[in-house]
Amino acid sequence: MLKCILKIIISIFLMQITLINCNAIEPDEILNNQKYELRAREISKNIRCMVCQNQSIDDSNSSIARDLRILIRNKIEEGSKDKEIYKFLTERYGDFILLKPPLKVNTIALWFLPFLFFIIGILIILNHNKKSNKFIKKN
Amino acid sequence: MKNQFFKLPIIIFFIILFTFFYLLVIDRNPSMVPSALLNKSIPNFDAKTLIENKKFSSSKEFGGQVVLVNFFATWCKPCRNEHAFIKRFSNDQNIKIIGINYKDSSGKAIEWLEKLGNPYSSVAIDKNGKIAIDWGVYGIPETFVINSKGKIKYRHVGAITSKVYKKISQLIEEIE
User: Which of A2, A34, B59, B137 is most exposed, with minimal Cβ within 10 Å?
Assistant: First the structure.
């Protein structure tokens, strides 16, 4: 039984590795200049595929993802900076195209609420501990 | 004070519960992203027209009246489904409609329009999808409502249904 569970865990783990390493880039998209190609890959990993929505364009096989990958590579070859490419894309598709939402007034809650909940949680635990300690001392 | 402190998580829990319930109940499609170009001027582009094979310049086509822009392709099934509504916009409401034929075979597109009817005042060809990217398009079909000042007032992703038709018609009346 234990061996069987172990086998399942190992196969799931191996499956994850193959999934992590797969990407959708086709050979004809790859740039000859390695530096440029690395930059394009880095940007593509941060850009959301608007069709699949939970994948980056680096991982997605959709037509729009391929178009955007090619566009990013063309822009890099034309001499655009990373910031300019991100600006070009967000101007057309909004901040939603970025997999990591930028810190803005309307995203403050998204960034800081988890910390607030964490602090509230700690305060509740501390309070609870204090109460139980008092109870133990009393008895 | 202590009691109030312990009430806080319960209050937060119900606020979150209410928010999720509200988002579940209201009429919305979470995968539909609002256009980043809303209330902005249309992205200008030059292209070739599908039928006449003439130069299409967006700067000459917009302004002075409400225009619908419809991205379509013959390989897209929802485009065929919504075509009747696009024709209704043209026939019943006399709206100028510009079609953008996205990554398609020109021959097939001309045949398609001859067979199903051509509601477009002109059709621009977007062979490699560059115009679509400039317009922030990610799913074909997509329809944009442009006001008389050449600004994007509404974008619909997906096929136009009778419900969407009514919504767009109302919007056209409001901005006209």
Answer: A2
For residue range A58-90, list pLDDT tens digits in order: 999 999 999 999 999 999 999 999 999 999 999
pLDDT digits (tens, 9 = 90+) for B37-48: 999 999 999 999
Average per-residue pLDDT for chain B: 91
The answer to whether B144 touches B125, Cβ cutoff 8 Å, is no
Against a cut of 0.95, is the pTM above it? Answer: no
Q: Which residues contact A15 (CB under 8 A, 6 or more apart)?
A: none
Supply the ipTM of this predicted assembly.
0.81
According to DSSP, the residues that pair with B146 across neighbouring strands are B67, B152
DSSP codes of every residue in A71-96: HHHHHHHHT--HHHHHHHHHHHH-GG
- The number of domains in chain B is 1
Q: How far apart are CA B153 and CA B35, in angstroms?
A: 9
Enclosing domain of residue B53: 35-175
A96 touches chain B (CB under 8 A): yes
What residue in B sits closest to A54 (Cα-Cα)?
Answer: B31
Residue identified by tokens 């178009």 is A67
Give the per-residue pLDDT at B13: 87
Residue A50 carries which DSSP code?
T
Among B34-38, B85-89, B115-119, B164-168, name the one with the lowest average pLDDT: B34-38
Residues of B with a Cβ under 8 Å from any A Cβ are 2, 5-6, 8-9, 12, 31, 33-37, 43, 103, 128-130, 132-136, 138-139
Contacts with A117 from chain B: Cβ below 8 Å: 12
CATH number of the domain at B153, please.
3.40.30.10
In a domain, B129, yes or no: yes
